[in-house]
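Slides due. Your pick:
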Amino acid sequence: MTEHQPINGQQTLWKSFLIFLVPLIATNILQNLSGTVNTVFVGQMLGVHAIAAVSVFFPILFCLMAFVIGLSAGATVLVGQAWGAKNIEKVHSVVGSTLFMTLIGGSFIAFLGVVFAKYILLALGTDEEVLHLSIPYVQWMLAGSPLLFVYIIYTSILRGVGDSTTPLIASGMTIGTGLIITPVLIAGKFGLPKLGIIGPAIATTVGFSIALIFLYFYLNKKNHPLRPDAALLRHVRYEPELSKIILRLGVPTGIQMVTTSVAGLVIVGLVNRYGADATAAYGAVNQVLNYIQFPALSIAIAASIFAAQAIGAGKSDLLNKVNRTALTMNVLFTGTLVILAYLFSKYLMALFITDPQVVVLGQELLFIVLWSIMFFGASAIFASIMRASGTVTVPMIINIVAILLIEVPCAYLFSEWWGLKGIWYAYALAFVCLCLMQGLYYHLVWKKKAIQALI
């Protein structure tokens, strides 16, 4: 089922799943840490205005990431199915078609972003005090965005053939490059010019360039099935039918990401009503929850890839085994982290907050919502296995319903009843309802469908 191991029974599935999962979790944690480290460099070396200038780019980046993550989600499912069918020609066709769309779309975004950066930032209401810093930073980040997009797409596709180790190595290279180059470019050391605010943007682009060069030579040297040789590169072209399927699978993922982001902004506005301490506690709790969600989301990604490979191989009977394995791992991995977070909640909050009263508030909020991450993980697994078969619209609608009709209105209602804690009760309720809805649709509707490969 993966690049290295076929599935022959539950025990082998467990082993293959675990071998694939561990590097995937490590990659997600490394990527999150890289953003944190970059922000620390900017804040420590350039000050508060620079942090504000960089932060303005986050909503722009999120919209762009919705586009590219949607593409990668669609491509990974098709690559997994083609790989499961042992059809390397189809694998190359999917990779080539996805890279073509990525390069065209990325170049278009880069051009428009560089030209209209100032107007985009003004539309976002950027403070005039930081506008002069934000414009060059955003222009340089958008100019290098096609490389970021290609990197994300290629590492996602590698996972589609069961290789989660190479993306981990590449991720380590981008982060290592950033750690070395960012402070050098900001301060202008070793005879290099002092670049200030555009230093982190250039360092980011250099990091992804080095990672892509590494992938080119490393994959060719390993004789990897996805090595970028002439056989693969000749497929980098527009293929209408494939592009349509990739977009059909990917667009719902992008819409879901944007909906989640907008709902998050609404919740932040609600939290802000309770003052700075509440906002600080909200930020700290979210940081902890993010790290606990990584294994759950990684397990869901792994389940989607294993399911896609099973469908491609014509072994739909293995889907129940994939589902059971993923749900069990969610209980073990996510459950263990939830228990540890309960036990060490005070110390986790103290990593982000210095005020003892706010630490206690953060603990109280964390206690309310922590357990529900288990349900969040299970819902992601159900949705990911359905996505592997091409069923994407209903899981997306269920997710949006949970956010817009349960989480947001209940956050308003519960906060009227129970104050700040009510917002976190709404989060927990939304996660449980999401899991129940995805699980019911999975068992009562989707499992009764005839599962066929998409390509």
Notes: Residues 1-8 have pLDDT under 50 and may be disordered. The chain has 17 helices and no strands. The first helix runs from residue 10 to 46. Residues 44 and 207 are 21 Å apart (CA to CA).
